[in-house]
Design brief:
single chain; 125 residues; mainly beta; globular
């Protein structure tokens, strides 16, 4: 069974950092582009970042550019989202998703095939 499991969320003060992880089980991530999305209460799901299967290409939403970094370790079937300089508006449930495509599928959620259950990130003092 194909599964994605997010971890690393939590409560952090404004200006702080968190690193989210997305681990795959039941399949290898080698041939999948991975995206991170988030959804805050009452808001639509928002694409945050994505990375191609080879790590050669990345995309970031304007709202997180310069603060978030996506990376992957295919040997560990894990993708990371390093989040620095966190702001209260970053508060949301964060999801990772996989798309079996060449290159990067972008930040449109409907281009992704498999989704994790999400991890809560709360930025508050």
């Amino acid at each position: 069974q194909l599964q994605l499991v997010e971890s690393g969320g939590g409560l952090v003060q404004p200006g702080g950092s968190l690193r989210l992880s997305c681990a795959a089980s039941g399949f290898t991530l080698d041939y999948y582009a991975i995206g991170w999305f988030r959804q805050a209460p009452g808001k639509e799901r928002e694409g945050v970042s994505c990375i191609s299967s080879s790590s050669g290409s990345t995309i970031y939403a304007d709202s997180v550019k310069g603060r978030f970094t996506i990376s992957r370790d295919n040997a560990k079937s894990t993708v990371y989202l390093q989040m620095n300089s966190l702001k209260p508006e970053d508060t949301a449930v964060y999801y990772c998703a996989a798309a079996r495509v060449a290159g990067v599928p972008g930040l449109r959620w409907f281009r992704y095939d498999y989704w994790g259950q999400g991890t809560q990130v709360t930025v508050s003092s």
